[in-house]
Amino acid sequence: MSKLIIEGGQTLIGEVTSSGAKNAALPILAATVLLEGESELRNVPKLMDIVTMVRMLNALGVRTEFGPNNTVRIWNNKKIRHIAPYELVTAMRASFFVAGPLLAKTGLAKVPLPGGCAIGSRPIDLHLKGFKALGAEVFVEHGFVELKAKRLVGTHIYLDFPSVGATENIMMAACLAEGTTVIENAALEPEITDLGHFLIKAGAKIEGLDTPNITIHGVEKLHGIQYDVIPDRVEIGTLMIAGAITGGDVTVHNVVIPHLEPLIRKLKECGADIVCERNLIQVKGNKDLIAVDIETQPFPGFPTDMQAQMMSLLCVVKGNSKVKETIFENRFMHAHELMRMGANIKLDKNYAFISGVETLSGAEVRITDLRAGAALVLAGLAAEGETIVYGLKHLKRGYENMPEKIRALGGRIVE
Ligand code: UD1
Predict the structure, then answer these.
(1) What is the pLDDT averaged over residues 277-298?
(2) Ligand 1 center from residue 121 Cα (angstroms)
(3) Do 3-19+231-414 and 22-228 show the same overall fold?
(4) Ligand 1 binding pocket, CB closer than 6 Å
(5) Which of 55, 123, 126, 381 stands 20 to 30 A from 275 (CA)?
(6) Catalytic residue positions?
């Protein structure tokens, strides 16, 4: 079984460069269904999830080629097929991002229901509400979502919750709709803005990015472009915590500081030294880090995708912390594994109460989902002795070369 072996207790010191953002690259790849002609995406992380999305594009009739230096070339000049294969949507929920582009481009989409995952039930009702509002007929039967519309028509769509995926799916569909669409209570995550910039470069007319009201004026068509994906704020955040949890001194290059503000605030509250300069960030840990409370919120609140990694840190700081998870209902699976490493955590519904311990002890642990995997690696780095982390496939879905990056900082970790 795939596993990582970590010899804990090393102080991580040095410099690393971030990879491109998985959660920006995925919807951008899906959006290439809307384009006509040739495109080149740069700073695309080489990950399992990206490979899954590329396979999806191929299945729909979009040709792709991975190039050197994290580029992907894309040719969209054949007829698009509107049926998304079951095995790709069930392998990765984000495959559902093709629904909006398929509907807008072909007037039809048949996409399997993505279903739940390890962190929660994850419905898609808001995506469907948006498509319906744009004039699509929506059928959900036999495990598929079928969408039909001769031409989508712009409208106002209020999202009951600022869902990242629904904002992205509706924004992509609205690009080729007739007239103007306004998404109200849109999510503000940086990956949405990146998708918006990509679409604008391809010829879309979008206003209000980075605000809760995104306005999209429909256009007849979009054209191929070259585009650089933003850095991955979750990978960067994970490396920042690696610096803090080992009492080290880690500098990450290729970062966008405002994307990291919620984490920077909390790490400073813990007592870590943080220096931000243009596009690099340096984090120094020390022996006197202290407990903080966190509550996950949509951006610019504390990201749910950093909750697990932050919990690992809170397990070894002085004092008592409270973690409240408000985005996903089942996102504490890592806590049980951290307890096996000696962490003092009590769970109560969507709260975790953590009393910092002097040190964690290495153990055999199992990854249940992507960010839980990152949390266990961080805990392993801080623990005394050897930690064996099983279920590496989850980590590989979302982190490019994580063991290599940690080794470059002096961590002892082998596959
Ligand atoms: C995206 C990210 C994921 C991150 C999450 C929240 C990608 C590929 N994934 O996931 O890493 O953790 O944002 O920042 O970008 N919801 C509904 N109905 C819907 C859609 C969502 O009730 O139609 C609920 C979800 O169940 C969840 C909450 O809204 O409780 C947030 O989900 P959402 O923002 O949509 O997350 P994703 O786009 O799935």
Answers:
(1) 96
(2) 10
(3) yes
(4) 23, 26, 94, 120, 122-127, 161, 163-166, 187, 189, 191, 304-305, 327-328
(5) 381
(6) 117
- Cβ neighbors of 132 (< 8 A, separation 6 or more) are 138
How many angstroms separate the alpha carbon of residue 107 from the centre of ligand 1? 25
Which structure tokens are listed for 45? 């992380």
Level-2 CATH architecture, domain 22-228: Alpha-beta prism (3.65)
Is 3-19+231-414 in CATH node 3.40.50.1260?
no
Binned at pLDDT 50, 70 and 90, residue 1 comes out as confident
| Residue 231, beta-bridge partner list | 20
Q: Is the pLDDT of residue 354 over 90?
A: yes
Å from CA of 301 to ligand 1 middle: 14
Torsion angle in degrees (nearest 10) through CA of 166, 170, 173, 178: 170
> Is residue 119's pLDDT more than 80?
no
Q: Locate the domains of the chain by residue range.
A: 3-19+231-414, 22-228
Q: Is 68 exposed, middle or buried (0-12, 13-18, 19+ CB in 10 A)?
A: exposed
